[in-house]
UniProtKB/TrEMBL annotation:
Pfam hit, one: zf-RING_2
Domain of life: Eukaryota
InterPro entries the UniProt entry points to: BRAP2/ETP1_RRM, RING-H2_BRAP2, Znf_RING, Znf_RING/FYVE/PHD, Znf_UBP
Coiled-coil regions listed: 363-390
Designated name of the protein: Zinc finger, UBP-type
Gene3D superfamilies named in the record: Zinc/RING finger domain, C3HC4 (zinc finger) (3.30.40.10)
GO cellular component: cytoplasm
The species this protein was found in: Corchorus olitorius
Length: 405
């Protein structure tokens, strides 16, 4: 990295900027490209900046003004930190620092900014991994570019979130896993996308895609889709077997599943309400208001009505209504649970009968094959015995002829 005031070097990499940093790249004789990046948990604090990289259209495969500072772009989100460390394991001892950042417009990917101990190791890393597939099952390739400079452009979040040591303090931070000092000279350091640093050897043992400290995960959960038409709108989940189908406003695959399997209860994914196809209504509507969704107020007859009490709001009446409503809720919950258990039992019985029938058919086929082999063996033994008898008779005749002579 350059020695200009706008360059982030050493321990100052990716720290909170006090002002927007500008740089002049007119002195560079090779073409470069600027890629915006950000790091940090967006809910807490976020640092934004720009990576200036040598373009791939350079005349020379290795830029003359390159430094031991490269960036790996477009790493798939499903590739965890441990997977990436395993991917570049042959060079892990030559890497001083790795920083995970996100690029604008690439929600399903992240980039890695890497600093090597020497220019030779950086060049060998470039030749070995550039345009190489991450694995044999995917078409994505590793895109490696030499980095000219890194600049900060802004910071959002509370200042309290940035933990900077006092100016007089020389104590280095510790790895949250092994509690050893994070020293670039002795071991490589990997900083996650949420700005937590670890030894590369420690993070390599963490198989989860989330951060070991704050559990922040860059990879977004996959959206549910219809098993048939792959739509992600108006989805219904079968409570019995877990089939996900679309509603009647789309392809109607949820109701088709009910007609084929008779699984009458389906959960609406957006509202978590359960629909009963047999009763053609929501099962919750039995105890909910049709207007606001709240519990229906069941008006009980006041014990003081004969004494002229038109509308009694006494505490005892309210308690009785609450108890009565609670009993109704429990009754219908128990009914729903019983029906679900019965349907599950019928489903497993049907599967068990299917397995038993398949096993019986397989056993019958084996028995028939054994019987056929036994019959073949009997025929063969009879044939051998007949051959032996003929041979003994022939030997006996020859012996008699010799005696006569």
């Amino acid at each position: 990295m350059s020695s200009s005031s706008s360059t982030v070097t050493g321990d100052d990499k990716f720290r909170q900027p006090e002002t927007v940093i500008d740089a002049d790249f007119s002195a560079s004789t090779m073409s470069t490209e600027a890629i915006p990046f950000s790091s940090g948990n967006p809910r807490i604090e976020e640092t934004r900046g720009v990576m200036h990289l040598f373009s791939n259209d350079a005349v020379s495969p290795l830029p003359v003004e390159r430094k031991p500072f490269v960036s790996v772009l477009g790493v798939p989100n499903h590739m965890t930190y441990a997977d990436f460390c395993q991917f570049c394991a042959s060079f892990i001892h030559h890497i001083m620092e790795m920083r995970i950042v996100r690029n604008d417009g690439m929600d399903d990917r992240y980039s890695v900014v890497m600093t090597f101990e020497s220019q030779d190791s950086a060049d060998r890393f470039y030749h070995h991994f550039n345009n190489r597939q991450f694995n044999s099952l995917e078409e994505e390739v590793c895109r490696v570019l030499f980095t000219v400079d890194v600049q900060f452009t802004g910071y959002s979040g509370s200042v309290d979130c940035v933990q900077s040591p006092p100016a007089s303090s020389t104590e280095q931070p510790s790895c949250p896993v092994c509690l050893e000092r994070l020293d670039q000279g002795t071991s490589g350091i990997l900083t996650t996308i949420c700005n937590h640093s670890f030894h590369c050897s420690c993070i390599s043992k963490w198989t989860d895609s989330s951060c070991p400290v704050c559990r922040y995960c860059q990879q977004q959960p996959e959206k549910s889709t219809c098993f048939i038409c792959q739509t992600s709108e108006n989805l219904w989940l079968c409570v019995i077997c877990g089939f996900v189908g679309c509603g009647r406003s789309k392809g109607g695959h949820a109701i088709i599943h009910w007609k084929e399997t008779q699984h009458c209860y389906s959960l609406e994914v957006e509202t978590n309400r359960v629909w009963d196809y047999v009763g053609d209504n929501y099962v919750h509507r039995l105890i909910q208001s049709k207007t606001d969704g709240k519990l229906i107020e069941l008006k009980s007859h006041c014990v003081h009505a004969n004494d002229g009490c038109g509308s009694c709001d006494c505490v005892d009446s309210g308690i009785d209504e609450d108890i009565f409503q609670a009993e109704i809720v429990n009754e219908y919950n128990e009914l729903l649970r019983t029906q679900l258990e019965n349907q599950k039992l019928e489903l497993w019985k049907a599967k068990l009968l299917e397995v038993e029938e398949r096993e019986k058919k397989s056993l019958r086929m084996k028995d028939d094959k054994i019987q056929a082999l036994q019959e073949q063996l009997s025929d063969l033994m009879a044939h051998l015995e007949a051959g032996e008898a003929v041979e003994r008779l022939s030997i006996s005749n020859k012996t008699n002829d010799s005696t006569v002579l």
